[in-house]
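User: I'm curious whether this sequence folds into something compact or stays loose and floppy. Could you predict its structure so I can see for myself?
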Amino acid sequence: MKTFHALAILLQKNESVLMNTILNYALTYGYSRYTSTLAEAWRLSISGLTNAISQYIAANPESIPDIRVDSNYRDDAIASFGVIEARRHRSRGIDLGMFLGLFKYYRDSYVDLVYENVKDEKLVSSYSKYLIRCFDRIELSFCVEWATASEDIKLVELQNKNMLLANEKNKYLTLFESFMSPLILLRDNCIENINMAGIQLLEPHEETGIFYYNEEYGKNIRQHKSKNILKFKNKNILKLFPWMEGALVVFDKYHATYNQFGTKIFNETSRKDEDYCVTIFQMRDLSQKFPGKIIFFENISEKKQVETQLRESEEKYRTLVETMNEGILVLNSNLIVTYINEKVSTLLGYSKNEIVGQEFVKFIHAEGIDDFVEQQSLRKEGNADSYEFVMVNSNGEKVFVLSSPTPIFDAAQNFKGSYEVLTNISNIKLIEMQLIHSQKMETIGVMASGIAHEINTPLQYVIGNSTFINEHMGKLLEFAIQLKTTLDAVTFENFQDTLLDMHQKIDALDIGFLTEEIPLATKESMEGLNRIASIVTSVKRFAHPDSDVFKSIDVRKEITNTITISRNEWKTVAELTSDFDDNLPELQCIPSDFNQVVLNLIINAAHALQEKFDDTSEIGNIHVKAYSDKHHLFVSISDNGTGIQRSIQNKIFSPFFTTKEVGKGTGMGLAIVLKIIEKHKGKIWFESKEGVGTTFYVQFPIRHAEQSVQ
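Assistant: Here's the prediction. I'll summarize afterward.
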């Protein structure tokens, strides 16, 4: 059996089409003069009507509505719709004929929809008849409700509706007049209405609604200046703002919905030129009763001033950032460069376009990339500690920089990247390396007399033994020559005499003494020379300025070598012992730097012992120990000297801090030790008790993250 559910679906899917169709009917036949100007009102009207018909179809899906003599025109969905519409239009003062006339076009709109969308002629006929009967029932219920209401009810309804309309009109008029920016309503480019802010743009004025109500009380306006305001009523806008002609011509020519531009306007109230953003737009009136335009004037003088100040401020700080001596680097969370200033471009020797948008690790020294990436991971945790890294410029040269980072987080605390302030410390690094070497040479200078004494002692007995050997070797050579001559002249007859003569000469040489003493002298001389060679090699090894390349060293050998060259500093005040783990790993470091750390700490220990035991017959103890765990190598140097006063323990690593007398110390020893250890990513700390002694601990990472730094 056929049903009309498909008809309901067709209507619901085409509400916009129905709205446009009825609007065209209303415009064509003059009904729009009495209807709403806005699209939403028409949409609600169509939606309500379609909903009522759909509900009726749902209740009566199989048969076309009947109109009987005893039909009830109040209880079903479409009848109820007619009752509601009767009351609504009656209260608005709408004539019965006017409503029924427009409602005929509503019916035509729905029937037209069926004819345009349904191809089956039988369905078209049945759908059309169903719709016509629905509209008949709505009209009948409308008329019944209209006719049964008393005149008193109609009057009360009309009065209430008029009051609501008056209040609604006054509310929107108040809104119009209260608007802080000038608004002008145009009809045919002439001023139809203007709010108070608009009047104040044209003349100083403080009364509202004068353009709207001027016909009623214009003659009674007391103030002369208020009367002058009325001269603007119906005046062509181009007489006031001739510069607006082009905008209006373009607006009308292209049927624009709006046109916006900026200009300067002389404000009569403030008596000065001010910046305005002028917007022209059409009245949104579907009924075409109000075909005029609205001109909206937004005073943007303050905004323009702020923009100018902001632009000047931005330019000032951009100039500051671009010309500052520090580099400014901005990275996103993927280490992509989003901004650099001119200094970074200069440091790297590339243009900004060659750097921005690139991964910054491309400009990091290969052996320092892992450390740089690790530092950036700390930014995600909010860490903002300064750190050093090495870049490589376009010429392949290293550029040492100190970075002062600032993490970037959004409002939701999501990590977005970091700001990096880069300071070029290449010269500082060069000076630092020179200072370390200078300190090393200073240490050698301090130990020079001791080293000379260490060399002089074995040298003396080398010289003595060499003199002894030289003297007796001459006698032995002379005897050898005589022996050869004698042997050449020996005969059978003089053989016995020759042997007796040779025996006497051998006795004169004291061969037993020579065979005992010469080998001993030779051995002592060799030991002395080896001792001298060892000292010279140690000094040379220590003083030689290594390259900045990290190398693997034998820790036991390097410490032993350093103990050797420092012997004169401690031999009279201490007994030095050492203890090395059997399985000490090789250490990646700069060898001379490692030796410098050990030497400085041994000398400091010796000085502490000298201070404590100088006026006594006792000597102290220095103990050097090297050991390791899975990740680190440790060196500890202990003494039982004077210890470090608690009051200065936080100062001992400060540059130029010393407790020695003037001329006996620069105060750079421990400061340089700290700098070297930091360069090697290590740590140094100490334990000390006054009068008992001190132990310094040094920790080096066994596998250094970088093989070449500084």
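Summary: Residues 5 and 58 are 7 Å apart (CA to CA). The first strand starts at residue 183 and ends at 187.
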